[in-house]
């Protein structure tokens, strides 16, 4: 088993790197998983600066607030998971960044049909699913009480039953839910000092952390 720092929704806050590096060292973590919205509508190269220097393996997907060019910079500093299945020491990781359509018209949104068409062929049963947008109805309730998750991601989850689903996007929906053998983890927004330490390789476990600034 290995332990990972899981963070999402950094939104170009320099201070996040400070406490993230500290946590990796103090907790002797094996890797970092970044769930997107690294930048705040750019600049794309900031993501590369953020992801460098952890001295442990880093896996990342872009978020809906990351311009598409961000992926080039992520790939220079980390293992880019978007649209890929990667074999890791804790099993297969399948990644998909961006989000389904939002009311904010952000840079990296896709129709549900596209998400399903591109994500489904990557999946294998029991994988670790690393996404920016959560599945519809799980860790996805906004302040207004609406479910903002992706129905395509939900369909893939129901079909392939991943061991864990790591997602961000909905800042206010931090939590850990176990349902039908899958552990769903939203660490909350790193820009607000939130993160999770997630143990993978056996039955997934998560410790949610708050006020890390």
3D structure, described in words:
There is one protein chain. The model has no long low-confidence stretch (mean pLDDT 96). It is built from 5 helices and 12 strands. The protein has one domain: 4-Layer Sandwich (Purple Acid Phosphatase, chain A, domain 2). Helices cover 22% and strands 25% of the residues. It is globular and about 40 Å long. Helix 2 (45-51) packs parallel to helix 3 (70-77) and helix 4 runs parallel beside helix 5. The strands form 2 sheets. It has a 6-stranded mixed β-sheet with strand order 4-3-2-1-11-12, covered by helices on one side. Strands 5-6-7-8-10-9 form a 6-stranded mixed β-sheet, with no helix packed on it. A hairpin with a 4-residue loop joins strand 11 and strand 12 (205-209). The protein has 213 residues and is an alpha/beta fold.
Brief digest:
The protein has 213 residues and is an alpha/beta fold. Helices cover 22% and strands 25% of the residues.
